[in-house]
């Protein structure tokens, strides 16, 4: 018998027992966006939304339609910077974290 577990369910369970994991996912999504990897960042944000606030609550927090948020954070999504900023702000508030950008020193 093969052992398998839905990845999304694994993320939900990990976030429920380890709030630092949710914060790490948010940090990773922000880092990926800033490093030019928006596809991976959107998918991490989607998993984080599903594991924390859910799309219906995110829709209320951002004043954006849930269906639009689903599309924005899909593998083919193309959210505007305004929408991304709103999504990040809602998740930051809900997770009670701040995001700080640090630059690497040029060698």
Report on this structure:
With 107 residues, this protein is mainly alpha-helical. It has one domain (7-95). The protein is 66% helix and 0% strand. It contains six helices and no strands. It has helices at 7-17, 19-34, 38-51, 55-62, 66-72, 81-95. The longest helix has 16 residues, at 19-34. It is globular, with a radius of gyration of 14 Å. The termini are far apart. The mean pLDDT is 87.
In a nutshell, what does this entry contain?
By secondary structure, the protein is an all-alpha fold. Helices cover 66% and strands 0% of the residues.
Question: What order do the helices and strands come in, and which of them pair?
Answer:
Layout: H1 7-17, H2 19-34, H3 38-51, H4 55-62, H5 66-72, H6 81-95
Supply the key terms.
107 residues, mainly alpha, 6 helices, globular
Fraction in helix: 55-70%
Mean pLDDT: 87
- For the termini, the CA-CA separation is 53 Å
From the spread of the alpha carbons, the general shape counts as globular
Question: Would you identify the regions where 5 or more consecutive residues have pLDDT less than 50?
Answer: none
Radius of gyration: 14 Å
In total, how many beta strands? 0
Per DSSP, what share of the residues sits in E-state strands of 2 or more residues?
under 5%
Broad structural category = mainly alpha
- SSE order in H/E notation? HHHHHH
Reported for the largest beta sheet, the result is: none
Number of helices, where a helix is a run of at least 4 consecutive DSSP H or I residues:
6
Summed up, the domain count is 1
């Amino acid at each position: 018998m093969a052992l398998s577990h839905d990845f999304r369910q694994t993320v939900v369970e990990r976030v429920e027992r380890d709030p630092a994991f949710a914060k790490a996912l948010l940090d990773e999504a922000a880092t990926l966006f800033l490093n030019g990897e928006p596809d991976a960042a959107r998918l991490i944000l989607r998993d984080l939304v599903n594991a924390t606030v859910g799309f219906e609550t995110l829709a209320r927090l951002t004043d954006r339609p849930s269906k639009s948020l689903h599309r924005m954070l899909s593998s083919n999504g193309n959210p505007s910077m305004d929408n991304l900023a709103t999504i990040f702000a809602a998740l930051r508030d809900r997770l009670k974290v701040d995001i700080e950008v640090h630059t690497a020193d040029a060698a």
